[in-house]
Amino acid sequence: MKTQVRAAARLRPAQLAVASAVLAAALLAGLLSGAADLPVGGVLKALADRLPLVEVDSGLSAVEWNVLFELRLPRVLMAALVGGLLAVAGAGYQGVFRNPLADPYLLGAASGAGLGATLTIALLPGDPGLTVPLAAFVGALGGVALAYLLGNAAGQGASHSATLMLAGIAVSSFLGAMQTFVLQYRSEELQRIYAWVLGGVGSADWHQLAVVAPYALVSSVVLVLHGRLLDVLAVGDEEATALGLSAARIRLLVLAAASLATACAVAMSGLIGFVGIVVPHVVRRLAGGSYRIVLPLSLLAGAAFLELVDLVARLAVAPGELPLGVVTAFVGGPFFVVVLRAARRQVST
After folding, report:
1. What is the largest CA-CA distance in the chain?
2. Which domains does the chain have, with CATH numbers?
3. Tens-digit pLDDT profile for residues 198-239
4. In sequence order, what are the residues at sequence separation of 6 or more whose Cβ sits closer than 8 angstroms to the Cβ of residue 12?
């Protein structure tokens, strides 16, 4: 009965409206917060003025207009995009591995991206610019591909998911060791490398958003559209086969889309942990376990969550700024303790 109810669950308009409202409020808070005070009415009018067939005098000065559209808006959109991608990728991985604690970085994406960025920063003279995000993107996809090939060669059938997880751990350890080796010989670049590894969206601009937007859109759409199929996989591969579905093909498509989403997020912001675990788990507890609900709501909730995290990072030590990975670790650490204690109670009862 439980699986039948889960399979029949659908995303309700009220759930979508609440998640969208929370995201809109988080985005507005991000636009209004900073060293320069911008009027709420002026910001709303300026945003409305950018809509087609709408002409509104915002009353903002040239400096305020540049602060809003050249500094804050790209940063706000970048934070929302990264958070949404990490959260929906985490939900996708959790559906494939049938493990609510599966992480977007599980299959070597983080270690591959870290190695790619480290090599670029350490070996290229001067400011590498957009080469770092590109190297991180290629490294993340390369790490995932290596883990998948290794796991696919080592095991098939019912144990395939567990084999993939073990392959991801092995690849992550190997690539992490390579990164440490590079750091050992380029210690003068430690500050720049760790600044990227700890994550941030302070360097966001419109060009970066335009480059990554197509990949982010494709991966998000593929993941959200596979919600019903992940519900079927949650029942078992045999049931999926009985319905004429290929469990291996579904698993490969979801893994590819989740890995692409993770690579996009890592390339833009560096390594930001816990988003892909915390957000899907909270959504699952509040809205239900069906992936037709978890995936789209995780996309919206993840965007709102990281936007609020970026807001805390900017305001906590102003005029300085905390790395986003540090803030999410403060949230994710206690969250893990709560989850583990809850799981222990379920086992004991």
Report:
1. 64
2. 2-348 (1.10.3470.10)
3. 888 888 889 889 988 999 999 999 999 999 999 888 887 777
4. none
